[in-house]
Structure formats: structure tokens, C-alpha cells
Write a sequence for this structure.
């Protein structure tokens, strides 16, 4: 059996539902603060690796990890963590969506807006999303001309696991080692957190590795099929739109009658009449 990797979205979703593993990851990403606790926001309660697999198979749990956290000074926040292996065109817009939908879920009806917490959407990417060689890209809203920060406490963070190749290993605070481990699976000597993380991945490989790999393959096939359907739908919509424009032009100019257009295209006379009324 092939060894699983933490870069696998399913493996990440399972392993990071361990409080110790998730807390360690957050503290290596948020190096300028100390995070002391996390709580998971999934509706299900995880009792075993199989529980997560079954939940994913039934689509009752997502592959991202949504947690509420507490910093050492008592400040509360939420963070949405996801492993991202494939470069996606809409990754930035996905972050925008994640911010909005998570805030809605966190705020109860009647709550004041002041109860909203700082929110972090974090994508751990096995590629450099902005091709600048940085380990972390952290974004927040600012005024265009002055750079004035809005302080709405929305943060979108992209972690580039390839960046260790351009970093100095000497004096590593754990971030370099984290990136290298995620990217290559290489374990540094004496890093207890990464050793435990790797043990979790090995345990998964031994217990349910075949099942994870089958499910992962099934999910990829589903994504391909969805993509094919969306492209086919787009082509059909494009053809229909082009056909409508052609009918509108020909009928409006009197080159063919509405009845002739209906016979050729299958469009109803009412549809053709409505088309010709449009500006």
C-alpha cells in the first residue's frame, strides 16, 4: 500500500480534527501570537477515523477545518483551514465566500455586530499562489490610496509550502520544518510535533489507507464529471444564446417570418415575439 500524505485533502481533514495537531499547526502558521485552545465547529462529533470517512462519504462534513480559537491574551477568533493541492482559478473568490458564510453561521439572530470575531481563511498550498517566493501571503482590506487598514478583522492567508526552498533553515522556529514536511514528507530530527503528526498519518495509512485512497479517487472522478457537465451546460447555453440572437436578427429584418424561424429552431412563436421586442 502506498503511504498517505498530509497533502491529501482527506488525510488533512481527518488528522486536523485532533485538537493537539490542529493547535500545533495554527501556532506554526500564526507565529506572531500564541494560540492556547481550539474548538471544532462540525455538527458531528469525531469518535474515530471511520466516523470522518463515513461523514465525508455522506457529504455531511466538509474537507476544510472550521475552528474557534483563543489566543493567550484571551482574544477569540475563528479559522477555516484547508489543504489546497490543485491550482484553482476561483481560489480567491472561494475565500471571500468562506468569510461571508462563516460569519453568518457564527452570529445568532439578534446578536450585535460587535460580537463578530476576527476571521481567518487559511489555504495551505502545495504551490506558490502568487509566484513571489514568500512562505505566507496575508491579506486584509485597506484603503486604495493611503493603505489605511479597515480593521474589519477579515484575514485571508495563503501558505506556500514550496517556500522552504528559498528560506534559511538556521534558526528555524518550526515554520521551515512544517513547510518542508508538508511538501516532501521529510521529518527533521528532534521535532516532536511533526513526529506526532507523521505518526497520525502512518496510523491512517495502516488502518484505512485503502479506503481513503478509493474515496479520494472517487471524489476526483466526481469533480471531473461535474466539470464536464458544467462545460457542456456552458456550451449549450452559448449555442442557445447564439441561436436566439440569429433568430432575432433575421426576423426583425424581415428576412424570415416568425413561423419559419419557429419551424427551423423549435422555438415557440411567443418566444420569438418576446425576443424581437427586446432592445
Amino acid at each position: 500500500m502506498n503511504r498517505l500524505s498530509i497533502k491529501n485533502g482527506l488525510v488533512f481533514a481527518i488528522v486536523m480534527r485532533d485538537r493537539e495537531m490542529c493547535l500545533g499547526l495554527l501556532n506554526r502558521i500564526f507565529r506572531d501570537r500564541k494560540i492556547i485552545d481550539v474548538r471544532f465547529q462540525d455538527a458531528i462529533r469525531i469518535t474515530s477515523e471511520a466516523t470522518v470517512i463515513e461523514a465525508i462519504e455522506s457529504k455531511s462534513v466538509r474537507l476544510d477545518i472550521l475552528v474557534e480559537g483563543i489566543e493567550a491574551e484571551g482574544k477569540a477568533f475563528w479559522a477555516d483551514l484547508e489543504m489546497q493541492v490543485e491550482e484553482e482559478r476561483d481560489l480567491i473568490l472561494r475565500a471571500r465566500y468562506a468569510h461571508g458564510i462563516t460569519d453568518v453561521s457564527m452570529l445568532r439572530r439578534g446578536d450585535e455586530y460587535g460580537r463578530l470575531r476576527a476571521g481567518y481563511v487559511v489555504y495551505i498550498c502545495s504551490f506558490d499562489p502568487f509566484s513571489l517566493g514568500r512562505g505566507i501571503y496575508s491579506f486584509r482590506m485597506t484603503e486604495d490610496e493611503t493603505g489605511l487598514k479597515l480593521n474589519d478583522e477579515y484575514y485571508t492567508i495563503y501558505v506556500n509550502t514550496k517556500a522552504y526552498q528559498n528560506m534559511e533553515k538556521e534558526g528555524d522556529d518550526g515554520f521551515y520544518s512544517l513547510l518542508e514536511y508538508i511538501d516532501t514528507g521529510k521529518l527533521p530530527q528532534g521535532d516532536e510535533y511533526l513526529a506526532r503528526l507523521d505518526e497520525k498519518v502512518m496510523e491512517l495509512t495502516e488502518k484505512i489507507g485503502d479506503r481513503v485512497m478509493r474515496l479520494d479517487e472517487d471524489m476526483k472522478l466526481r469533480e471531473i464529471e461535474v466539470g464536464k457537465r458544467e462545460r457542456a451546460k456552458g456550451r449549450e447555453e452559448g449555442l442557445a444564446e447564439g441561436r436566439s440572437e440569429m433568430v432575432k436578427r433575421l426576423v426583425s429584418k424581415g428576412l424570415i417570418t416568425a413561423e419559419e424561424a419557429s419551424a427551423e429552431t423549435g422555438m415557440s412563436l411567443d418566444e420569438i415575439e418576446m425576443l424581437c421586442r427586446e432592445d
In short: The mean pLDDT is 81. The CA atoms of residues 137 and 158 lie 5 Å apart. The two ends are 63 Å apart (CA to CA).
